[in-house]
Amino acid sequence: MTLGRRELSRVAVWVALLALWGCASTPDAPPAAASRPEAVPRSAAASPPAPVASRPPAPPRPPASSSSSPTTAPSPLASCYEASSGRQGVGDCLRRRLRAAEERLAAIYAVAEKEAMALDGVRDGRANNHRALVDSHNRWKDYITAECDRIAEALRPGTGSGDALLDCRVRLTLRRARDVEETL
Known about the structure:
184 residues, mainly alpha, Substrate Binding Domain Of Dnak, Chain:A, Domain 2, 2 domains, 5 helices
């Protein structure tokens, strides 16, 4: 795959953003404060980039132990960029991953829902486990919408905000599936 100058600039921005978001999978990734990308001008005549608000430096990471250091999996966005041959391929890959994550969550949620209803029945109908599960899931849906919209909005217009939105939805859906599964 051959990338033009513009695509390489976008890839460089995404790599820097992934490092900033803590999604870098290599232990030698630069600290978040040092990897903040400046805005990439669209042409030589473009206005200078707006100043970026400074963030406090990221807390130091604990040293990795040789016996059991968990490996950080690449983000869905990073792995789709690696596996795809073009922009359309990245979006298709992310949509497939989101569909798979949503199916996994639906399956886990169905089991959790049955267990919550069974637990409510054991307690003479006085327990509210099922209602609490439904409330929690509805609030999570509101959260994922707000959080992923926030991330995408920070990258608008035309900087791959749609890919960032899908990446966020995949990551948070998989996290929700793990969280619900841990309570079973």
